[in-house]
Specification:
Order of helices and strands of chain A: EEEHEEEHEEEHHEHEHEHEHEHEHEHE
Oligomer: homodimer
Structural class of chain A: alpha/beta
Largest sheet of chain A: 7 strands, mixed
CATH superfamily of the largest domain in chain A: Medium-chain alcohol dehydrogenases, catalytic domain
Chain lengths: 361, 361
């Protein structure tokens, strides 16, 4: 067993606190990683506070993990000690279903879905057919910790030219926006609107701009208008300012909503071109305002998209390295994590907090 | 001017009553058609009762029209006196926008949208940019009448082998389901669920079965279960019976909702395969239950679709003739139209009322 130190919550109402636990020794296919940096995702907060009503406690969050390989199992062939590597939202999948076989583990249809980096299987044994637990565990502990142990197939290479602290947010915020941009066929010369301009939104902007896309940002925060333009946005508007939105009617090949909480999409549907889609990447339950008197008149769609595959995660890391893209990060001490959560909830982060895990002490 | 007799409503609360009016003489590109049969679409009721809050009175409905050509303008080349022809939901479009130029007039983006067979432009002059009225009229009168005058480009040929009364419902109910089945790439061996089994739903079933699709019907009317199977459904269930739906999870390449009123789609999202779409063809305003905690997990979409193009309308007429497909119709007298409306609203039609316009007297 590997002694591990982390920060986690013991209940929905608890603050994160230091805790010690043990990780299993590596199996032949596992990589042991000393964690250097972990990004703070809004999902971490939703999960810790049980806002999706599925949290298993204790909850040690963190799924934007960058670190160094310290040990490898006998069968590991792609990594060795000292390699700079990353771990995103998944650490295992069923490997047998059609999505897994076609390299889209993020849509795993196995009995327990994919195994999340923290909070265990996407479909807990209690919800799986026959109560099956194919992963042998009901909980997992994430990257707010000193060490993670992950099968090599779910470990990413951090390419040269990406600073480790900058690579961390690409592992969730990056791939979650990269995947739908690519799946919906967005490329050079297309027009995209990004709704919500936080951790995910600003990554979406940087990625799309580097793809040759004309990007419009819709935010609720006035000071982000100029920041978005400075990051390459063609235009940026206050999302609730109807006067600004009117001239944008029928303008976009894709609208990507990165807003992490319930929101009304009706006003944005007007901005889609014919046959275009509004894709929501947040786990926001019911999407309000899906108005068929709008959708039908231009054969539009409202769709969901969930993170991205391991292959897509490697692609976006490589794309960022090749194109000099890095998220805007603020490095924080793990002891400040509870205050950081509050600032994220208040929309005060600019744009991603990344925990320096050496501060675990 | 052409003296015309029709049935229309003078206000949202009026019954349909006999009225006389005049139609313009044909322009060089127009075809004059003596109406033989007109289908009764649920939209006729929504429109007459101003349930979409956009009705111009008097309102003479009817957009599933079959008749004989009695006269043609000088420039008409495709039709001559005596031809059996049809008119669907549209009688003109801007002919200049990108959708019109690509043969999808039903998504016309001209200042007034397409010109509906009744109730005038889709975008009235008051709603168009600059208050423009490119059609020179704010209202049109439909096929609950003795004569219609329509530009030949919006007139369909009724192929040999289709009885005129059977052809009528294909012009709206048929093409409205045919278009999304084709647009979403449905073909032999695919699985489709049809939600709602009335005028549109039963046409969707017959068309899809002839395309080699395995069709499941979801209806709220118990007696329709066996009727759907008799028309070729692989299976049919009560749409609200959750126990029946559970085994259908992840089964369908497409779900087509033909329900003409507001309804909850949440339970149906579970039945879609990964990357599949639920398409709503009814003009139902807000679609309830679009749950991103479902959509995102299998990258699914909820989409709208609006009738079909003129080319698709001719295609579906030809397809029905070639495959021996005819809607289930009950011929009614125009004098019984108000009672027929009530029966349609009560879900009592089996499956499409078609008015014998010779009863106009």
């Amino acid at each position: 067993m590997i002694k591990t130190v982390g920060y986690g919550a013991r209940a929905a109402t608890s603050r994160l606190e230091r805790m010690e636990f043990e990780r299993d020794d590596p199996r032949p296919e596992d990589v042991v990683i000393e964690v250097m940096f972990t990004g703070v995702c809004h999902s971490d907060i939703h999960q810790v506070k049980n806002e999706w009503a599925n949290t298993v406690y204790p909850c040690v969050p963190g799924h934007e993990i960058v670190g160094r390989v310290t040990r490898t199992g006998d069968k590991v062939s792609r990594f060795r000690e000292g390699d700079l590597v990353g771990v995103g939202c998944m650490i295992e999948s069923c490997r047998a279903c059609e999505p897994c076989e076609s390299g889209e583990e993020n849509y795993c249809e196995g009995p327990n879905g994919w195994l999340a980096t923290y909070n265990g299987p996407m479909v807990p044994a209690s919800g799986a057919e026959g109560g099956e637990n194919t992963y042998g565990r009901d909980n997992t502990f994430g990257g707010y910790s000193s060490v993670v142990v992950v099968p090599e197939d779910f470990v990413l290479s951090i390419p040269d030219g990406l600073a480790p602290e900058a690579a961390a947010p690409i592992l969730c915020a990056g791939v979650t926006t990269w995947s739908p941009l690519n799946h919906w066929g967005i490329g050079e010369g297309d027009t995209v609107a990004i709704v919500g301009f936080g951790g995910l939104g600003h990554m979406a902007l940087k990625l799309a701009v580097a793809m040759g896309v004309e990007v419009t940002v819709l935010t609720t925060t006035p000071e982000k208008i100029e920041q978005a333009k400075a990051m390459g946005a063609h235009a940026a508007y206050i999302a609730t300012d109807k006067t600004s939105l009117v001239p944008l009617a029928g303008s976009f090949d894709l609208i990507l909503s990165t807003v992490p909480d319930k929101h009304e999409v009706g006003p944005f549907l007007d901005l889609l071109k014919r046959d275009a889609s509004l894709v929501v990447v947040g786990n926001i339950d019911i999407i309000d305002g899906v108005d068929n008197s709008k959708l039908a008149f231009h054969r539009q769609s409202v769709a969901g998209s969930l993170i991205g595959s391991i292959a897509e995660t490697q692609d976006v890391l490589d794309f960022c390295a090749s194109n000099g893209i890095a998220p805007e990060v603020e490095i924080i001490d793990i002891k400040d994590i509870n205050e950081a959560f509050t600032r994220v909830e208040n929309g005060e982060a600019r744009y991603r907090y990344v925990i320096d895990m050496s501060t675990l002490g």
